[in-house]
Every structure is written in structure tokens, then in C-alpha cells.
Amino acid sequence: MKRFLAVLFLPLLLGPIMAQPEQSAANIKADMAFLASDKLKGREAGTPEYDMAAKYVADQMKQIGLAPMGAKGSYFQHVPLLAYRTRDQGVLSLHERSGHATPLVFGTDYLVRGNPLSADLSVDAPLVFVGFGVVAPEHRRDDYAGLDVTGKIVVALSGAPKFLQSEERAYYGNARNKLAAARAHGAVGFVLVDTLTGEKLYPFANAVRQYQSWGMTWRKADGKPFVPSPLPVLASVSVTGAHKLFGTDTGRILAAAETKEGDVRGFALPLSLRAVLHSEIKTVESENIVGLLPGADPKLRGEYVVLSAHLDHIGVTPPVNGDSINNGALDNASGVATTLEVARLFHGKASRRSVLFLIDTAEEKGLIGAEYFAHNPTVPRSSIAADVDLDMPILTYDFTDVTAYGADRSSVGPSVRRAATRMDIKLSPDPEPDEGIFTRSDHYRFVEQGVPAVFLVTGFANGGEAATKFFLKNHYHKPSDDLSQPIRYDVGAKFARLNYQITRELADGTRPSWNKGDFFAAKFAGKK
Ligand SMILES: [Zn+2]
Q1: Whole-model pTM?
Q2: Relative to the CA of 380, which of 96, 108, 371, 517 has its CA 20 to 30 Å away?
């Protein structure tokens, strides 16, 4: 009788019985099917469709058995946002001392993105070119040496010299750090100029297509926007526009930027820039979703390993091939679905430390939801032991290697190595240092708060190079990043298991710590 009952009823109670990997693949498929559906219209932060996705994630967390760890006993952490975009195409012109003026052409020479601090902005100042605008004392490099930019507009190339180590190159190439350097030197405006490498990776025409999309930052307790370097970005200039700035020097400058040393000397340009810009600014409300798996060890339960993944994507944009919904199936429905699956894999076997699952908003606007959480964590900041970030796993091939960004800067590295070895997955050096990946996802906001972090990207082996390049060229931030891609949900299950193993190592072993003298530890670790 008992046996009969078990055979008859257990499948009804538990659903179809599947082996773990098949169950994981089915779970990931179900989550992605909802999150990347047209109904959610690309999950842009601040839209009702993002909120629907957030509610879905909170429901999943509840079903999984995670404790609510947002605000006021809920899964939601309210994130007050400020959104801004340009109201028009701006009016920009270059002026020689003779009085001769050259207009810059929107969409060909430059584009503007709006300003969070002032709706109407008018700047007229001389231009000073500062090369990459890198100040790196450890390499005895100062692109501002001998230049006076006080009261002037700084013109800097995008990216950073190729000789720099991958993650440090990402740091120096990050626009926020360039702005900080320009402001520290007394500049009154900033112009970013594309390099040949930049144009190849992210064609100017793609950015022009989306120039009216909203940028965002978060609002502080006093209601003011968080803007770490309040220096206006007046324009992004294309390679075409560079010729108007640099004249006959353009070829030499762009070629020097491509060399390993990237030794591009700056100089005062014989030009002033007049820029008249109008921005639309509004407040927007959104939510991070936070769930907790309490640790099993009473001594370590008060420390947290954070798993982060962004839920938002870029919403609706002008159509490509008749489709305007950016479903974000692999950016980042795949990362959210695999993160939720990591939570399921912990079921019934809690780790010693607690694990905090942070599904965050406004990543596509500049890692804003994660930044808000890192500045306003729902657990004591000093208790956050590490962050593991899941963003844009490309699940169209069976990866056999990964690049673990950030891992080798702390004791997270050996943990990642052990976890990968157990699954027969190899660790590869960064195959795309031009991309500056280390500062481009949510884990970096934890690094800025002094927290060791790791971000896994599926590798180039076993067909990965072709699959990755195909995705970046054809689907990245386009409406075609949808569920019609040949998604391997079994590979999603494998990616979830690998991140589970890593998280498990970090949550059970000694607390992660930075390597002595590490670059990012020196920059940020005093903050804890
Ligand atoms: Zn993205």
C-alpha cells in the first residue's frame, strides 16, 4: 500500500522527477521564458514591466525559501533614481582664434547624452587634449604633465593604453575615473573621443541609434543625485569628428593610441568649444530584490557572501528589423535565472556564512542599483565578505573554460580554482582586454567599497570565441537578444553549478581577503 501510494502520488506532489541537472535546466528555462518575454518589454528600470519582473523574482525567492532581506521585512529595497536624457541634439561648434567657426554635426561628429545636474547648460572654453587622460603614478605616467587645464575643456581618448594589466586597464579606461582626474585638475567640461579600437568594438552608429535612452543615477538621502565627479560631459566625439578637433594630427594620434605603450602626448588645441545642451531630468523609482539564505554556523552567520545579477535591461528602442523590444535574454535574464538556480542548489545544505542574493536594478544605466546597495546595504557593510556577480553568461555553447575577472586579486582566486577544477573547467586569462570588462558589471561597485569580488565570463574554448563574438556583433543591446537564439539551458545549469561551487567555497572557508599590495585594495580597501 505504502509503496503503491508512493509510486502513484509522489510524482503528483513533487512534479516530474528529474535528475538535478535536468531539473536545473528546466528551472532556468522557465525563468528566462518569463523574464525575456515580449510582455516585459525589455525590463527597463523605472517601468511597470521592470516591476513585474521584480515581483516575479521576489515570488521565486519566496518559493525557494529565501528570507526577505530588503526593507521592512520585504524582498524589495527601494532605489530612488534620477533619470536624465538629452532633450535635443545639442548645438556644438569649434572656434579658432581668428574667429572662424566650424559646426559639429550631430550623429556624424558627435552625440550628447544629457546631464543629471542641470537642464540647461552652456559652456564656452578652450580645449586641451590630454591623450588618454591617465594618471598612473605606479607606471610613472601622467597624461596631464605639463598641461594646464584649469578653466578649460578636457578632450580625452576613450579606453586606456594596452600595456596595462586587464583589470587595471579597465580602471583607467573607465570614464568615471577620467572625469575625476579632469575635475581634480580644474577642468570645466569633458569631451570623450573614440579610438579605432572603440569604434570597432562599439560602432558610433549604434550609440547614435540609442542617444535618447535614459541615463540614471541614484538619489542620496538629501534628495540630491549621486554624481561622484560633477563635471559635465559635453560630447562623445566619433573618429570622424576627431578630424575636426585634431586636423592633420588625427592619423598620428589615433595610430599612437593603438600601440602597446599608447603614448599619446597631449597639447593645448588652438580651438574653443561652444556647447549648448538641454536635458530632461526626472525622478524614477525602482527596486532591488534581496533574499537571504541564513548561514548554519552561529559564529559566521553574521557574515555575507553576496551573489549579484542585474534584472533590468534597456527596454524599448527604435526598431531594428521591425523589432523594438530589447528582451535581454542573455543580458541578463540568463544571469538572473542562473542566480536563482544557485539559490535552489543550496536547498537543505546551508553554508557556514550567510548568502545574500541581490537581484538589482539600473545596471544598464551605470551599475546604479548595485551602487545604491553597496552604499546602503541592508546588512552591515563590514559584514559583506565577498561578491560573486553573474552577468550576461552566453549560453549558446558548452563552455569548457571561464575568465574569472578580479579573482586573482584576493583569496577568492584559489577558491575559484578549486571549484572549477572539480568541474573540469579551465581558467583562462582575459581574452578581450580591449573591452574593459572588470569595471562594467555590478561586482565593481562592491570592489569600490573594498569588498573582494569575482565575475565569471564563459571562455573562448570549445566554440566560445565564435559564439561570443557573434553575440556581441549581432545581438548585444539589440532587440534580437531574445529567446529565438539557440540557448542551451543545460549549459545554464552548468554555469549555475559552477557559481554555486564558488559561492559555497567562499561561504564555508576562511573569509576572503585582498592580496597584500593589490592595486584595487590600495585604492579602495580602506573604506570598510
Ligand atoms: Zn547590458
Answers
A1: 0.93
A2: 517
Report how far ligand 1's centroid is from the alpha carbon of 432 (Å): 17
CA 236/CA 213 separation, integer angstroms:
15
Determine the 3-state secondary structure of 444 from DSSP.
helix
Continuous H helices in 233-367? 239-246, 250-258, 334-345
Region class of 337: left (phi > 0), else alpha (psi between -120 and 50), else beta: alpha
Interval between CA 397 and ligand 1 midpoint (Å): 20
Closest CA to 444 of 310, 315, 330: 310
Contact 326, 317 (CB under 8 A): yes
CA–CA gap between residue 238 and residue 100 (Å, rounded): 22
Cα gap 487→492, rounded to integer Å = 9
Instruction: Give the count of alpha carbons within 13 A of 417, CB side only.
Output: 9
Q: Are strands 189-193 and 153-157 parallel, antiparallel or unpaired?
A: parallel
Over residues 343-386, the pLDDT tens digits come to 999 988 999 999 999 999 999 999 999 999 999 999 999 999 99
Longest dimension (CA), the chain: 100
Per the listing, cell 521592512 goes with 72
Q: What is the pLDDT of residues 202-250, one digit of tens each?
A: 999 989 988 999 999 999 999 999 999 999 999 999 999 999 999 999 9
Cα of 454 vs centre of ligand 1, distance in Å, is: 18
C-alpha cell at 167: 583589470
CA distance 113 to 215: 7
Cell triple for 526: 580602506
57 CA distance to ligand 1 middle (Å): 19
Cell digits of residue 15: 512534479
